[in-house]
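Quarterly update from the structural biology core.
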Amino acid sequence: MIDLVQLQKRVYQNKLEKGFNVTDIYQEFCLTHGELSEACDAYRKKKDDLGEELADVAIYLIGLAEILGINLEEEIMNKIEKNESRVYENRDGVLIKVKD
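Predicted structure, tokenized:
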């Protein structure tokens, strides 16, 4: 089992040790977006490194959460519970949320 709180700290510590950005939030969002684009490209081109690209996305997201002081594990669990309680209807092939 992964301890996401400890993983956040580990990712952040690695960023500090290697001299990566930990202050420019907009840059971190852009870099995260870039990694997601690379993962999409790997999927589209059926490259062997798709898993590694997805890991990059997760690492950037985890690092960003730590920089912002967000407990990502707690937020994910809360969001999963919220999503599980939502009710959707299929209207002409489109899922529409009808109850939060």
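The first strand starts at residue 87 and ends at 91.
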